[in-house]
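Postdoc handover notes: sequence design on the structure in folder B. Input tokens:
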């Protein structure tokens, strides 16, 4: 074997290399997502979430605790707190108590979702953003206990465009299916820039917060913009969940820029997919689908192959990242952030 081949992985290495998927939703008591993932050397972080089509938060917490008990070396989970009782005066105290309960069950992180900024309103009808002072005691609690906060705040910039102008087909499909989140249809709602600025103000207010920007921190459209935030906020990490197609879209015309971004920020990026197991797919189809997604991503990160992807218009080349960079994105960054806690 040559020195060059030793410095890079190949597609054949995919099943044997230890890896983590830090953004999944194992929403059913059955363990097939865990088992299928383990067959390709993946450990999982599953994220509880109050979202359409998901079980209740209590059910998700119970399911996650069971999975953790059965697979302590291969599974971890994050908790999402409710905001339906936001107007209660003691909401911060109730919320920290909920987080403490989830931590006692094994939660290693907390998630905030786009309902903050897109759905939650105060009694005056104004949208509540993530930098609202009422969140401060909860965020301070996370800082005090060194608990990572995973933030899906805002949406892809495509969300504020008409369907025909969106850059990747997955966004067109999602926002056509969920028009309540398609902000182009809701011009009175906070803008994309307002969502991003609120998140940035939170990080400025709490510089010691261990923050993970889910979905490339909703800056998926520009590695330059994302690099600027990573430079500005040294405790910020990001995951790639459901946004790798946006990197591939950029690689069609700016391959070098995308490649160099991963080299420069190799310690700040974690691999994630946003795979959901809701039980609505037979085992064979589910396994085939998730393996195809992960193998295509592996090809993009590890090889120099000319590629195409279902969600992207145009050919692009794989990033051919060195082995040590791939190990950080797929394993060691996740271990430091979630799995060593």
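Designed sequence:
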């Amino acid at each position: 074997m040559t020195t060059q081949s030793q410095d890079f992985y190949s597609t054949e290495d995919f099943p044997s290399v230890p890896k983590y998927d830090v953004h999944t939703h194992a929403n059913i008591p059955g363990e097939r997502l865990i088992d299928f993932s383990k067959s390709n050397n993946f450990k999982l972080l599953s994220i509880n979430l109050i979202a359409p089509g998901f079980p209740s938060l209590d059910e998700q917490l119970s399911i996650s605790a069971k999975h953790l008990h059965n697979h302590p070396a291969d599974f971890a989970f994050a908790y999402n707190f409710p905001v339906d009782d936001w107007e209660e005066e003691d909401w911060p105290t109730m919320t920290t108590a909920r987080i403490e309960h989830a931590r006692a069950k094994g939660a290693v992180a907390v998630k905030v979702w786009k309902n903050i900024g897109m759905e939650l309103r105060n009694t005056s009808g104004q949208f509540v953003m993530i930098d609202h002072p009422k969140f401060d005691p909860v965020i301070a609690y996370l800082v005090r206990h060194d608990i990572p906060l995973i933030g899906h705040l805002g949406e892809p910039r495509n969300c504020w465009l008409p369907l025909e102008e969106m850059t990747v087909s997955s966004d067109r499909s999602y926002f056509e299916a969920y028009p309540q989140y398609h902000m182009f249809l809701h011009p009175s709602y906070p803008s994309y820039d307002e969502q991003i600025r609120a998140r940035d103000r939170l990080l400025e207010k709490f510089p010691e917060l261990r923050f993970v920007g889910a979905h490339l921190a909703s800056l998926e459209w520009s590695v330059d913009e994302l690099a600027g935030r990573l430079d500005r906020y040294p405790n910020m990490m990001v995951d790639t969940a459901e946004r790798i197609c946006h990197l591939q879209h950029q690689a069609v015309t700016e391959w070098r820029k995308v490649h160099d971004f991963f080299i420069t920020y190799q310690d700040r990026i974690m691999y994630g997919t946003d795979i959901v197991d809701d039980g609505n797919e037979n085992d064979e189809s589910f396994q085939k689908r998730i393996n195809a997604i992960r193998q295509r991503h592996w090809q993009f990160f590890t090889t120099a192959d000319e590629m195409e992807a279902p969600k992207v218009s145009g050919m692009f080349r794989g990033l051919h990242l060195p082995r040590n960079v791939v190990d950080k994105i797929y394993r060691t960054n996740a271990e430091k952030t979630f799995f060593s806690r």
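Context for whoever picks this up: The radius of gyration is 19 Å. Don't rerun without checking with the PI first.
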